[in-house]
Write a structure and sequence with these properties.
Order of helices and strands: EHHHEEHHH
Largest sheet: 3 strands, antiparallel
Strand order of the largest sheet: 1-3-2
Number of domains: 1
CATH architecture: 2-Layer Sandwich
Number of strands: 3
CATH superfamily: Metalloenzyme, LuxS/M16 peptidase-like
Helix content: 40-55%
CATH topology: Cytochrome Bc1 Complex, Chain A, domain 1
Structural class: alpha+beta
Shape: globular
Distance between the termini: 31 Å
Strand content: 15-25%
Length: 136
């Protein structure tokens, strides 16, 4: 199942808060598209992992935020476990997103997301190829 939301362009001041929110929801991936897809994010403490995978509704979750010149999409992808009806997954996903919208994220989640994103930035600068992709 894939759900999409409007996302800001790369120059928008709203991009980085959405990047932090994605880290809280699905694990910190960073902004380097080259290395983000090769190295999976840490997810065990991510909100949607706990709400969907740990509850046995899904086998995987993934968030995608691409820094583009024009506004694009933020997508959430969920791989359903066999026998799990999609409406049950959709309800759990929307309930968790509504909780974040209503209550925000905790200071601990913010601190952890910022630390994970910083670590990703450092690791994404570990090769000439990764640096070239960041510049591109």
């Amino acid at each position: 199942m894939k759900v999409g939301y409007h996302a800001p362009d790369a120059k928008s001041p709203d991009l980085f808060p959405l990047l932090v929110l994605d880290a809280v929801l699905t694990g910190a991936k960073g902004m380097n598209l080259w290395s983000s897809f090769r190295v999976p994010p840490p997810q065990r403490s991510a909100r949607l992992y706990r709400a969907l995978v740990e509850r046995g509704l899904a086998s995987a979750i993934y968030g995608s935020l691409m820094p583009t010149e024009d506004p694009f999409l933020y997508t959430l992808s969920v791989t359903a476990k066999a026998g799990t009806p999609l409406p049950a997954i959709e309800a759990a996903l929307i309930a968790e997103l509504d909780a974040v919208r209503r209550d925000g994220i905790t200071p601990a989640e913010l601190t952890k997301a910022q630390a994970q994103l910083h670590a990703r930035l450092v690791f994404e600068s570990d090769s000439v190829t990764n640096i070239a992709h960041q510049l591109g």
